[in-house]
Write a sequence for this structure.
């Protein structure tokens, strides 16, 4: 009978534990405005998906950690320091961190640049500005619903996509599996 | 003891066969039957799909007050409701965010937003955050088109409203409108699922 209840609790645990926790928090944000800003005036690259794609398919000896985020996404902001920490260990470990911002054009100058400056972001930041999301989201991962934060980790041999927020420990553990 | 084990295996097979695990894991696919619900609107009055006796279907939209994408689509959601309510497909908006994690998605703020924008559709609170996981919504806005049949409400389309969040006048493909139009004509829906960037739903 003890074995029975143990078994039952394992079964229940599995049943309920399938959905990973998505503890999230958001701050309020500006209304979306359609505003043209010349990309070269920003000082950080602004790509469409075709321009970004080569960064998602490098064939060298590095481990690429590509994080999709935005300044309006609170859980993204919360996990950003963990990516920064990984980036700092980059040289010694062949880690390449790229923070792909999905901020809207109206927020590039008002939110994104000040954020990079005040938080002293060291990782490479690029902006992905491509409206045809239904075309490129499945190309990044066929199961990605489009919710952020989301992260792609890959090297020459394997790639894994995470539609979730990370703690530093979780992120580091995942990266170790690529070494 | 052997007998018990066998029983367990049978139960597990039964549950996985009935889609019990799948439902918890990833929500609905096209063709699945969507659950009805009884959720309070901004005035505390409970709303269910079954209240709409004359409806041909529903546009269930998980949305919120705070996500820039949700805000960008507010006017278009109102326009969808105005256009399709009279054709039997009303919008039912559900705010899935836990106000304990995101105070500005609390009911007082929902009421304020609905008044300011003149929402023409019910804006419901996903009390206890129980409905959005069943549908498999992951973000706001996240749209489910349901067709009412004798067997229940069948999921016909899942995804985003159109292909340009930032500029309604530059939209090339109106995914949701195309899906509703085809559904009402009894035609096959050409694009049944789409993806878009959105704010992940805030839930414990």
């Amino acid at each position: 009978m003890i074995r029975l209840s143990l078994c039952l609790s394992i079964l229940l645990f599995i049943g309920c534990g399938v959905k990973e926790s998505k503890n999230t928090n958001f701050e309020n944000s500006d209304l979306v405005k359609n505003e043209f800003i010349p990309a070269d005036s920003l000082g950080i690259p602004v790509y469409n998906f075709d321009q970004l794609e080569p960064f998602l398919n490098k064939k060298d000896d590095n481990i690429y950690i590509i994080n999709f985020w935005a300044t309006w996404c609170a859980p993204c902001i919360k996990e950003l320091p963990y990516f920064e920490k990984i980036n700092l260990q980059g040289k010694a470990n062949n880690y390449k961190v790229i923070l792909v911002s999905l901020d809207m054009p109206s927020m590039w100058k008002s939110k994104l640049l000040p954020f990079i400056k005040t938080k002293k972001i060291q990782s490479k930041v690029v902006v992905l500005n491509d409206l045809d999301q239904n075309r490129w989201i499945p190309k990044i991962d066929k199961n990605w619903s489009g919710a952020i934060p989301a992260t792609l980790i890959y090297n020459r041999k394997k790639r894994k996509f995470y539609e979730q927020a990370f703690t530093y420990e979780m992120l580091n553990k995942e990266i170790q599996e690529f070494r | 003891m052997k007998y018990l084990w066998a029983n367990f295996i049978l139960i597990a097979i039964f549950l996985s066969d009935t889609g019990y695990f799948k439902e918890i894991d990833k929500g609905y696919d096209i063709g699945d039957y969507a659950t009805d619900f009884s959720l309070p609107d901004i005035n505390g009055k409970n709303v269910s799909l079954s209240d709409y006796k004359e409806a041909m279907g529903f546009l269930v939209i998980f949305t919120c007050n705070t996500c820039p994408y949700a805000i960008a689509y507010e006017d278009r959601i109102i326009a969808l409701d105005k256009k399709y309510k009279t054709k039997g497909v009303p919008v039912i908006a559900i705010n899935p965010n836990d106000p304990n994690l995101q105070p500005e998605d609390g009911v007082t703020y929902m009421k304020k937003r609905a008044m300011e924008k003149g929402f023409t559709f019910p804006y419901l609170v996903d009390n206890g955050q129980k409905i959005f996981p069943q549908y498999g919504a992951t973000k706001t806005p996240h749209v489910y088109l349901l067709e009412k049949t004798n067997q229940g409400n069948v999921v016909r389309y899942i995804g985003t409203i159109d292909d340009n969040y930032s500029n309604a006048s530059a939209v090339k493909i109106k995914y949701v409108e195309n899906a509703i139009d085809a559904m009402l004509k009894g035609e096959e829906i050409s694009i049944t699922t789409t993806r878009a960037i959105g704010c992940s739903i805030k839930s414990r």
